[in-house]
Design brief:
This protein is an alpha+beta fold. It is built from 10 helices and 18 strands. A 5-stranded antiparallel beta sheet has the order 8-7-11-10-9.
Amino acid sequence: MMSFGRRLALFFALVVLVPSLALVGILLIVSEDSRHGKADARLAAGLETALAVYDERVAAAEAAARQLARERALADGLRAGDRSRLRAFAARAVRDGRAAGVEVLGPAGTVEAEAGTDAVAYFELELAEDGEAKGRMLVSVTTADVYAAELRRLTNREFVLVRSGMALGGTVEPPLAALEPGETADVEAGGEEYRAHLLALDEDREEAALVLGPRTEDGLLAVERPAGLLLAAFLIVAFVLAYLLARALTGLHTRVAEQAVTDPLTGLWNRRRLDQLMRDEVDRSMRFGHQLSVLVVDVDDFKRINDDHGHLVGDEVLKRIADVVRATIRSIDLGARYGGDELAVLLIETGAEGAVTLAERLRTKVREASIRRADGRSLQLSISVGVATLPDAATDSEDLINAADQALLLGKRGGKDQTRIAPGRPRVAANGHGRGPSRAVPPDRGGTSG
């Protein structure tokens, strides 16, 4: 079972962790929105430049288109409806460098000839003869790669030129994810992550420019450095405070728990704790066949001490005898205040002989101890002790303590300052007749009487 301290520490950790995680989540969401906002603002500048340069390239293509429109080969080809002558005209214009791309359309809008399919920013020119429409010609003086390179020089952004969803060229490998015109999203291109926007340049020709800018900003978890440091400091302070509070409350709980089972005067266990420990130890001893003894210690003439010297002296007597008990018993033994001027000692895995030996040691040490009275003289002390052993004198905790109490009563009646051991329980012989006590009380040894 998890201890109270660990449960409390876990509780405070959760109290700190849950709000902290919520705070981190909010900061990340705000930071993500801020990051997108900053990236989108930078993209917006690139988009404006892309539109301006595109318009310039279209304007530059107008002069080239009007010059090409004056060529006889174009007029002859249109007049005769000769596609081969028109294709030769378009190819020659691109080959000679007078245009990056040329398309010739007939009166019905069908493409009669084209050259330079990677060109962008076309200028469209109506073709007519004697007031009669003969078709249209579209001319470009810029390829997709040249246009993208110029935009990258001006904006320090990456560009990809697209027509009808197909990449024509650019400064970076086209992303796998396809965007719709006007859409902004995070994409991966050339192994790098970008914030991208697809800008429609010519809706009729379905030409568009994909502008790509930095996706991430420097900082912890995409949080700006000051915010990251503030967040880290907050988490550290919160956890330290939670730890200190949990530790203080654990210590307080431990003290309260000890006070609940400790006698405030003697510092020994109280009667409630004694009863609990005795039940546990008796059950364990009976289960594993171990011996268990209990001593009931009574201060001789305690009432007279209180009457003659006052209750403060009586309290000092109890504390002094409790100190003797604590200093005499083993660490595995248990000392408790049984009630009034009586103390009890639970001797783990100890038989009658060992219990009597310890009882005599206690009596000797108490006689050697003394309390200084108000008049400066010493007050000599003595105790009487009753001893009972499991399973000789009892089989349960209640009978065990009662047997020791009865042995103490015999000692008090027999002259005090002595140790008495409770007789063994009557046993049934094989013939069915009862026998007496299991063993006799040893003769008096320095005060021990039978």
